[in-house]
Amino acid sequence: xxxxxxxxxxxxVIGAVIVVALSGVAAWYLLxxxxxxxxxxxxxxxxxxxxxxxxxRLNNSIQVLAQGLxxxxxxxxEGAIRIRVLLDSLNISDDExxxxxxxxxxxxxxxxxxxxxxWKALSTKKKLELTRQREKLESDHxxxxxxxxxxxxxxxx
Length: 157
What we know:
By secondary structure, the chain is mainly α. It has one domain. Helix content is 83%, strand content 0%. Helix 2 packs antiparallel against helix 3, helix 2 packs across helix 7 and helix 5 runs antiparallel to helix 7. The mean pLDDT is 95.
């Protein structure tokens, strides 16, 4: 047995077996890593497609709202608030935000006016007062908002 451990051929065979075994393990991990990366790439592609579809839905909504503003199908305030929210959801650049600042200005100017259940809970007198305020703000911002609505038509973000 002693002679076996001193035989260089024995150690060469042991070394070769170890190298082959480690190479097999390395190959298995490389294949596993490759499958993982392929799966991740597929998932990223699905996420990209979903993100693009969501962006398209938001862009379409902006177009519908802008057209609705121009056709007076909704109030300037409602349109400005909705478009502002959609533009913010799209994470537009500061330059784009500045281009459509009219929506932001009117929406911000009317932020103090309650909506939905809070509006319903108001007295008639308070509702009339806030309606007059809103109409005054809309009158003051009308041309600016309508111009922004015209310019945003056909835009994609």
